[in-house]
Amino acid sequence: MTLPATRQRIPALDALRGAALVGMFAFHLTWDLGFFRLIPEDFPYSAGGMGFGHVVAITFLALAGASLVLATRDGVDWRAFGRRLAMIAGAAAAITLGTLYLFPDAFIFFGILHCIAVSSLLALAFLRAPPWLALAAAALMAAAPMLVASPALDNLFGWSLGLSAHPPRTNDWRPLMPWGGAVLAGLGLMRLALARGLPDWLTGWRADAGWSRALAWGGRHSLLVYLTHQPVFLAVVWLAATAIGPREAPPLPEELQFQESCVSACATASANAPACTALCGCVADGARAAGLWRPMMDNRLTPVQRQTIDGLTRTCAPQRQ
């Protein structure tokens, strides 16, 4: 997932990227297990699960920015850059089409590969600028969603930028802001490190052990690994679910309470009970994904969080009714 490939690689950075792949495996596997109901479905959306996923994503994005600096120390090889960019953009498009077919209500339209592709183009403007400028831009991108988010941008364009007031329903969402800021942060930090000289412990490290060689290999071929691991995981977990059956667990009382209350309120405005049931399930899924399930059930939503729940309701309604 680096762009473009560097002529003089640093094995330690490859191994770090490989370690991030292992973290990604763990996060995606819990999602797959939850999707097939082999573990509690909301486990990947818990505070710990979401936080872990964010750390993995930040690592990949920051390494993409750092690798871009290393790859262009002697100038930009536009042919290699264009070839690598086309590979990443093509892979992102394939993910969009694949998830549109498999998960039409929550397809991936701006995931981590989309973010890397767009952010890499943006990063070109900072390759020869002072490093502090890249770091300042990274900070602005990180803060932008909190400063200028607007309901007027609750659409595909605004969701891709990250400036919408309400989150979309999607299985992977890494909008340009704030996530592209991690690419610029990695770029700025690597330029500062090069100006001071990379430490010997970083440049001198070698992947001598079997586990370290495996991590470094994965880091060098991270795009291939990223594209192939989920189909394999899904196939294996599907076979396991087919063999042993999904986890049968009765809904928690609070889930029943929410469903009954939501369907009752919905039925007041619509006599279509099945549509109301589906809509309420959609809102519940979105609240978990946004980390708002517990505040919603405890009736302690902030005004901004309540707007998010209202936005989820509007988003779910045309999809489900």
Written overview of the protein:
The protein has 321 residues and is mainly α. The protein folds into 2 domains: 231 residues, no CATH class; 68 residues. Helix 1 runs antiparallel to helix 2 and helix 4 packs across helix 7. The N terminus is likely disordered.
Low-confidence stretches: 1-7
Radius of gyration: 22 Å
Q: Give the number of helices.
A: 14
Helix-and-strand structural type: mainly alpha
Tell me the number of structural domains.
2
Distance between the termini: 39 Å
Task: Give the percentage of residues in beta strands.
Answer: under 5%
> What sequence of helices (H) and strands (E) makes up the elements?
HHHHHHHHHHHHHH
Shape: globular
Helical content stands at over 70%
Biggest sheet, open or closed, and with what strands and sense? none
Number of strands: 0
Q: What is the overall pLDDT average?
A: 86
